[in-house]
Amino acid sequence: MAPPKKFMTLERFINEQESMHPGATGEFSALLHDLSLAAKLVWREVSKAGLVDVLGTTNQTNSSGDIVKKLDVFADETIFKAMDHGGHICVMASEENEDILHIPDEYVTGKYVLLYDPLDGSSNIDANITIGSIFSIFKRVTTSGKGTLQDCLQPGYKQVAAGYIIYGSSTIFVYCTGHGVHGFTLDPSVGEFLLSHENIRIPKKGNIYSMNEGNFSNWDPGMQNYITYLKQQDKATGRPYSLRYIGTMVGDAHRTLLYGGIFAYPGDKKNPEGKLRLMYECNPMAYIIEQAGGRSSNGTTSVLNVAPTSLHQHTPVFLGSEEDMKLCEEFLQGKRS
Ligand code: AHM
Ligand code: MG
Predict the structure, then answer these.
(1) How far is the CA of 238 from the centre of ligand 2 (A)?
(2) Is the C-beta atom of 212 inside 6 A of ligand 1?
(3) Mean pLDDT over all residues of the chain?
């Protein structure tokens, strides 16, 4: 196989981006470096999940009532431990923990806030299907000392960076700091993430929809009409839309980012706010998709405009290509049926 035109490690890319900001202190770059180490540590366990005693469940449930997998616990603790002592974070929050996570007393605190879903798609672990980790970064709003809940509960448009790691047939670190969405594929033989997807732009329109259609009977009529419409011949391709659904948001959103189309987890009769969490899943993914030229919505407005009121709140979420999102909204608002 021919080598790429240039080898660019994630570490070097982060440093080069920092040098474009003369006032940068290096704190933010250090945070990203630590995140890349956390990603490699989690990948190392994920990739041997079938070999060692990490499969199966613990007997705990998390704040959303899900059964906690051993790998969830490992990923949760590993990310925290990789990030707690760098001096750049004042507080963290994780999908697996009810309350905010304080930086231990022996370490200094910094100006950033990290929220993360340590292992997304955990119901797929035992079947060796794609899973991921998601992160969202804000600047603190309090001025010093330990961070607070107030630092964590910021609307998505205030994110200064967000990204995810997808543990699929290869492992890719995708992130954005407001200057393009970039993907780095892990070369396990050298232990480095190498630039593989520079400046990702989501197609203006796709032909894939990704959602748990098993919930169809509980959706409202606008949503049902939209899906029924997508199953007819698409004018652009002469085919109906294809359904692709992994049940791991990272995987489904990553495919949507690269191929276009729409990913959604709408609210329904049983769960009006849907299933996915605003702070750990929807905000960071909405930021990535919007920065790549796509759109996000909670059905009414951009997900990034939603003012959070609690750490683990859920929200309906729609992410995708500009044209697909426009069409979906027309159905949701009853302008088409
Ligand atoms: P989790 O594994 O972090 O709890 O994430 C929840 C997952 C998402 O990754 C995915 O989009 C969704 O739950 C799938 O839900 P469902 O099984 O209802 O389709
Ligand atoms: Mg998740």
Answers:
(1) 35
(2) yes
(3) 93
- The response to whether residue 271 sits with its C-beta less than 6 Å from ligand 1 reads no
Q: Residue 63: CB partners within 8 Å, gap ≥ 6? A: 97, 98, 312
- Banded model confidence at residue 195, pLDDT cuts 50, 70, 90: very high
Q: Probe ligand 1: pick from 64, 94, 123, max atoms within 8 Å of CB?
A: 123
Does the beta carbon of 120 lie inside 6 Å of ligand 1? yes
What ranges do the domains of the chain cover? 10-197, 208-332
66 is catalytic: yes
The CATH superfamily label for domain 10-197 reads: Fructose-1,6-Bisphosphatase, subunit A, domain 1 (3.30.540.10)
Residues 152, 94: contact at Cβ < 8 Å? no
Q: Residue 53 pLDDT more than 80? A: no
pLDDT at residue 130 tops 90: yes
pLDDT digits 0-9 by tens, 66-104: 665 689 999 999 999 999 999 999 999 999 999 999 999
Task: For the chain, give the longest Cα–Cα distance.
Answer: 63
- Beta-carbon contacts of residue 20 (< 8 Å; ≥ 6 apart): none
State if residue 129 touches ligand 1 by the CB under 6 angstroms criterion.
no
Is the distance from the beta carbon of residue 247 to the nearest atom of ligand 1 less than 6 Å?
Answer: yes
Residue 307 in this model has a pLDDT that exceeds 70: yes
* Atom 2 of ligand 1: nearest residue by CA position: 121
* Residue bearing the CA closest to ligand 1, atom 18: 212
CATH 3.40.190.80 fits 208-332, yes or no: yes
Q: Determine whether 178 is exposed, middle or buried from the number of CB atoms within 10 Å of its CB (0-12, 13-18, 19+).
A: exposed
What is the C-alpha R_g of the chain? 20
Atom of ligand 1 lying closest to residue 250 CA: 9
Q: What is the DSSP letter of 93?
A: E
